[in-house]
Amino acid sequence: MGPATTARTVRALGLVAVAVGLLAGCTSSTESGGARLPQAASWSSVTGGPPNSGRAHSSVSQSPELVWSRTLGAPAIGVASSDGIGTSYQATISERGCNLFALSAEDGRKRWCVRLPTDGPRITATVDGRGSLFVPMYGGVGALAAEGENRWFVQTRGTPTTVTLLNKRHLLVISHQGAARVVNAHTGLDSSPELRLAGPIATDDRGYGLPWCGIGARGCPVPGPAAVDTSTATAYVTVWTPGADDPELVALRFNSSDSDSGGSGDEHGGALEELWRVPLSEGRLGVPVVLSNDRAEAYVHTDDGDLAAYSTTDGAHLWTAPVGYRPDLPPSVLPDGTVVTGGRTSTLWRGPEDDHDDDAGPSPVVAISSEDGSGRELWRRDDLRQLTNPAATDDGRVLVAVRADGSASDGGADGESDDDESGNEPAGEPGIAIHLLDGASGETLHRILVPAAHGPVSGLSVDSDGRIVLTTGLGAVYLFD
Fold first, then answer.
1. Which of 352, 332, 359, 212 is nearest to 284 (CA)?
2. What is the mean pLDDT of residues 59-87?
3. Which member of 50, 151, 414, 430 has the lowest number of beta carbons within 10 Å of its beta carbon?
4. Could you tell me which residue ranges the Pyrrolo-quinoline quinone repeat domain spans (predicted)?
């Protein structure tokens, strides 16, 4: 664990004690009259939604333009989520002040901000259809009302990497140490006993293994969020049990005894059942599992970066496609089932001396077809160096954020240099560009040079109105429409 990680963990430990005192006091055993909704039909969590498919619930403009930008005053680590009703939410890592911001999608104005003990490989608030938030924190998950008020806090064994609404009443929480449970989204009370997916962890340290989650190394049992089929309350997640030779792909299902009865869902309204687990003999990265559109296939990146597909019925291996690099971020799935690979990047800015080695290697954009069960390559853009997750639109296009290095090597559609006339791209300081690609051919349809942007990218998302949000690791937020 490096000095920066150690310092961040120490700060988080100090903050979590405050949060537990404040938030636990807000826990209620009373339902809120069915006022809450399932996960928002927008970019409602770190990977877009429960299936982790990186898919927007809208199309985007043919030629998006910058509407506003702002800085948050601290490094960002995670994708901006949105409630679909006009607000985006962005988390940061900071030593003081606010580190969760609610921003007006119209003009970037800060609606509210709060300080929370956020920590983890990717920090993104999960949002329901009314703007209520469920936020992964150091050692637990906290619920906030749409106006930013603390509601409850639930402690976990480790930091949550999965925070997903199964429906309007149940929240699935899986920590990086493999502790899985379902809690009542209204009250924060348990709706299932804890299920330890990685077996017992021989420490009470909630931060144990957390520094390895970003790269998916063995020290982190569950580095990425589970992909969830909400129609069956079934989750698919990669798990590395301490001492085991290989990681495993695990399927589990929440069986609720009162999901339709209106009961309190407390101690206990159901149970998590493990359906199957299969070894991933080629290893796995920290990239989350992603579900196909029909929920019949689960996609996992192997240790050498190849993309593998498994049957969600029994875990049978279906196909493996070589992609030629090791992505750090999940692929997106187009409406026709095409899988577009993600990028390589360090999503946390480490300071002015950081040379961004983690995004220095090849990270092309590769499209894989799953139509005929062969996992064949459809197209490849080796001229692009992708920096974060791709975002697929509902009309078959895909957005990618790539490195713009002062030449035409970022694949500009018209071959122009990235040194634009405005001077926004200083010589010798690589910038960032967004490309809108045709999902069928990979052709660049539109390209935007992001003004004054450099360094790593924290995330790329699209809200339900087609507004594109890019956040840099340095904490600058840009909205395009």
1. 212
2. 95
3. 414
4. 273-333
Q: Contact, 15 vs 8, CB < 8 A?
A: no
Candidates 405, 470, 463, 407; CA nearest to 434 is: 470
User: The domain spanning residue 377 has which CATH number?
Assistant: 2.130.10.10
DSSP symbols for 117-179: ---SS----EEBTTS-EEEEETTEEEEE-TTS-EEEEEE-SS-EEEEEESSSSEEEEEETTSE
Instruction: Tell me which residue of 373, 374, 368 sits closest to 439, measured CA to CA.
Output: 368
Q: In the structure, what pLDDT confidence band is assigned to residue 348 with cuts at 50, 70 and 90?
A: very low
Look at residue 18 and tell me whether its pLDDT is greater than 50: no
Phi, psi (deg, nearest 5) at residue 409: -75, -10
d(CA 103, CA 111): 6
Best CA proximity match to 196, nearest among 242, 129, 229 = 242
Least confident range from 221-225, 227-231, 282-286: namely 282-286
> Coil, strand, or helix at residue 11?
helix
Given 3-state DSSP classes, what are the helix, strand and coil percentages for the chain, each rounded to the nearest 5?
A: 5, 35, 55
Q: Using one digit for the tens of pLDDT, what is the confidence trace for 296-331? A: 999 999 988 899 999 999 999 999 999 999 998 999
Does 268 sit behind a cis peptide bond, omega within 30 degrees of 0 on the bond before it?
A: yes
Looking at per-residue pLDDT, the higher value among 13 and 435 belongs to: 435
Cβ burial of 187 (10 Å; 0-12, 13-18, 19+) is buried
What is the DSSP code (8-state) at residue 39?
B
Query: What tens digit of pLDDT does each residue of 405-439 get?
Result: 754 345 544 433 333 433 344 455 789 999 999 99
Q: Residue 50's domain spans which residues?
A: 3-28+36-480
Q: Could you tell me how many residues make up the chain?
A: 481
Predicted confidence at residue 351, as pLDDT, reads: 44
DSSP letters spanning 262-284: T---TTTSEEEEEEEEEE-TT--
Q: Which of 479, 477, 478, 474 is nearest to 93 (CA)?
A: 474
